[in-house]
């Protein structure tokens, strides 16, 4: 048994919860001042006010002095493209010089650029690089993560990416979910016969994925010049038959009517949603589909931010994630995501932390294990440096306030 004591407060406490927080519920990131947490065999077993702790200190095999820091649930990053070949800073400079993300993609840059680079890398190399990235993210406070394929765009390379994610699942002791994103872009060779690529996804990729248990979810990039609503629906239906629920990229640049169609299909989450119309809000309102915002992507591409305030006022369940990828979001830092959600999307710190922890956990269907300080959940948490309170964390954007990260009760980092 371990005792975490001398916190200024423990945050994100939740009991008897079985659905994402929305409406008034998301306004409170429940805290206990001067709280303690007890962990046993990697799980949270008790918590409360330190002065009410019943046990003697001699009962604990280890006592962790949190030195006046805050103890928060680790982040649950429900949307990443962590496996990729290399960075794309040349496109970053092209954008500085005036090209848009879409223009770069139409010239063969963007996702196709990443796919070309990934084709030449071995599974082992991809795994080593992704492992390093994930280790860095855990040190930044991420305690559960979703990772997509989608830079393969051929049977061989998509399977290679998913096998890398499978190896990450085996090598890391945090919850990891794999999403098959074969429908990320049309490879050049299929430009004039797009249905043939969709058939390849459905008839060649999905059977291998189902047989080897390589994915938990299916995704598609529903956008102009990528996949239409109808094409995305074909992918979702095929995924369903293979036992994969949907998490879909939609409304990043254009609202094409996908939101209502995909909510009807029971998508676990719809992600991006920078462009929203009335029909889209109506479809998400009171639905079980989580709207996942990716504010670092908006920041990096200088595109609109997902209108989270409006979503909250309509009782839509929201989550925050990084979208870590080499093209539109070269950062997997959830601390920055929370800051942006407060600064640009006007969430309160409590709302932003709930969206980045428990609601992110729901967007990966791992809320029974992570996302809050709850008895029985994994002891995945962040201990901050001594700060004045929760509000200081998103306020001091860019500052690393993390003192230590714990995964299953074991320390990952101390500054
Ligand atoms: N929008 C589609 N996919 C990624 C970007 C991929 C890339 O540019 O490599 C995203 O979520 O932003
Ligand atoms: Zn994405």
UniProtKB/TrEMBL annotation:
Catalytic activity entry: 4-imidazolone-5-propanoate + H2O = N-formimidoyl-L-glutamate
Any GO BP: L-histidine catabolic process to glutamate and formamide
EC annotation from Swiss-Prot or TrEMBL: 3.5.2.7
Positions that bind 4-imidazolone-5-propanoate: 88, 151, 184, 252, 328
Residues binding N-formimidoyl-L-glutamate, per UniProt: 151, 325, 327
Cofactor(s) listed: Zn(2+); Fe(3+)
One annotated Gene Ontology cellular component of this protein: cytoplasm
GO molecular function: imidazolonepropionase activity; iron ion binding; zinc ion binding
Domain of life: Bacteria
Tagged with keyword Protease: no
Keywords: Cytoplasm, Histidine metabolism, Hydrolase, Iron, Metal-binding, Zinc
Keyword Zinc in annotation: yes
Sites where the protein binds Zn(2+): 79, 81, 249, 323
Pathway entry: Amino-acid degradation; L-histidine degradation into L-glutamate; N-formimidoyl-L-glutamate from L-histidine: step 3/3
Residues reported in the UniProt entry to bind Fe(3+): 79, 81, 249, 323
Domain Amidohydrolase-related, residue spans: 71-412
Subcellular location: Cytoplasm
Gene3D superfamilies with a match to the protein in the record: Metal-dependent hydrolases, Urease, subunit C, domain 1
Residue intervals passing through the bilayer: none
Cofactor-binding details, from the entry: Binds 1 zinc or iron ion per subunit.
Function: Catalyzes the hydrolytic cleavage of the carbon-nitrogen bond in imidazolone-5-propanoate to yield N-formimidoyl-L-glutamate. It is the third step in the universal histidine degradation pathway.
Similarity annotation: Belongs to the metallo-dependent hydrolases superfamily. HutI family.
Name of the protein: Imidazolonepropionase
Organism whose genome encodes this protein: Parvicella tangerina
């Amino acid at each position: 048994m371990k005792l975490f004591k001398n916190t200024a407060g423990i945050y994100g406490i939740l009991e008897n919860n079985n659905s994402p927080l929305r409406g008034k519920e998301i306004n409170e990131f429940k805290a206990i001042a001067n709280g303690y947490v007890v962990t046993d065999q990697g799980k949270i077993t008790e918590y409360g006010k330190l002065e009410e702790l019943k046990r003697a200190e001699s009962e604990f095999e280890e006592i962790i002095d949190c030195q006046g820091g805050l103890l928060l649930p680790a982040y649950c990053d429900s949307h990443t493209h962590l496996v990729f070949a290399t960075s794309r800073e040349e496109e970053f400079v092209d954008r500085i010089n005036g090209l848009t993300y879409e223009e770069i993609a139409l010239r063969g840059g963007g996702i196709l650029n990443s796919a070309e680079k990934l084709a030449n890398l071995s599974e082992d190399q991809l795994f080593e690089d992704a492992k390093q990235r994930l280790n860095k993210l855990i040190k930044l406070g991420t305690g559960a993560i979703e990772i997509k394929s989608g830079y393969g765009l051929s049977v061989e390379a998509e399977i290679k990416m998913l096998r890398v994610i499978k190896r990450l699942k085996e090598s890391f002791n945090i919850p990891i979910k794999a999403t098959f994103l074969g429908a990320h872009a049309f490879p050049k060779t299929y430009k004039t016969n797009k249905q043939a690529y969709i058939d390849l996804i459905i008839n060649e990729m999905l059977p291998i994925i189902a047989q080897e248990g390589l994915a938990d979810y299916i995704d598609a990039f529903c956008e102009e010049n990528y996949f239409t609503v109808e094409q995305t629906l074909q992918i979702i239906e095929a995924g369903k038959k293979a036992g994969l629920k949907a998490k879909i990229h939609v409304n990043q640049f254009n609202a094409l009517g996908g939101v209502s169609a995909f909510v009807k299909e029971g998508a676990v989450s719809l992600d991006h949603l920078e462009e929203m119309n009335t029909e889209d809000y109506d479809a998400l309102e009171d639905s079980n589909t989580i709207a996942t915002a990716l504010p670092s992507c908006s920041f990096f591409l200088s595109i609109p931010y997902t209108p989270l305030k409006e979503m909250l006022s309509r009782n839509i369940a929201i989550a925050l994630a990084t979208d870590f990828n080499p093209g539109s979001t070269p950062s997997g830092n959830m601390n920055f995501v929370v800051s942006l959600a407060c600064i640009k999307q006007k969430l309160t710190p409590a709302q932003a932390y709930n969206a980045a922890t428990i609601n992110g956990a729901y967007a990966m269907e791992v809320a029974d294990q992570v996302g809050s300080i709850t008895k029985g959940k994994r002891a995945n948490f962040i201990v901050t440096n001594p700060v004045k309170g929760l509000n200081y964390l998103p306020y001091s954007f860019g500052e690393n306030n993390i003192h230590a990260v714990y995964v299953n009760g074991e320390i990952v980092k101390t500054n």
